[in-house]
């Protein structure tokens, strides 16, 4: 795939889009109706960033129209998400869109990350005990 200059070009050319960004003022609703409109028909999207990085109503409309062939996520609007804060969760629970896949917030839970986290916690406990011992 040729290198792209900006997000709009990336959206127009991609068959698969994965979203990995921190939630900031600039990234909130990075993907909304306009961006979904730029995407290829039949695009697949994976969001493991934050729910608020996308406009969930725009994603839902894209899923229902077929513009988006599939959307997979482990993040939704609101922490913890509810049917009131997340249109995607509401649609998922009602079985409205078969091409929507939601898992619990586990994308960062790999063997490596669990090992690193365990070592980090163990070091913190050790350091606290050493400080207490003094």
Any chance you could write out the topology, listing elements then pairs?
Blueprint: H1 7-13, E1 16-19, H2 33-38, E2 43-47, H3 56-65, E3 68-73, H4 87-93, E4 100-102, H5 111-133
Parallel strand pairs: 1-2, 2-3, 3-4
Overview features:
single chain; 134 residues; alpha/beta; Rossmann fold; 2 domains; four-stranded parallel beta sheet; 5 helices; 13% strand
Task: Describe it.
By secondary structure, the protein is of the alpha/beta class. The protein folds into two domains: 7-103, Rossmann fold (3-Layer(aba) Sandwich), CATH 3.40.50.720; 108-134. It contains five helices and four strands, in the order αβαβαβαβα. It has helices spanning 7-13, 33-38, 56-65, 87-93, 111-133; strands at residues 16-19, 43-47, 68-73, 100-102. It starts with 6 loop residues before the first helix and ends with a helix.
Classified in CATH, the superfamily of the largest domain is NAD(P)-binding Rossmann-like Domain
CATH architectural category of the largest domain: 3-Layer(aba) Sandwich
- Overall structural class, as computed from helix and strand content, comes to alpha/beta
- How much of the sequence lies in strands comes to 5-15%
Order of helices and strands: HEHEHEHEH
Gross morphology is elongated
Radius of gyration: 19 Å
First and last CA, distance: 60 Å
Which topology of the largest domain does CATH recognise? Answer: Rossmann fold
Please indicate the count of domains: 2
CATH class of the largest domain: Alpha Beta
Unreliably modeled segments: none
Work out the helix count. 5
**Secondary structure: number of strands:** 4
Enumerate the strands of the largest sheet in spatial order, edge to edge or round the barrel.
1-2-3-4
Q: Output mean pLDDT.
A: 92
User: What percentage of residues falls in helices of 4 or more residues?
Assistant: 25-40%
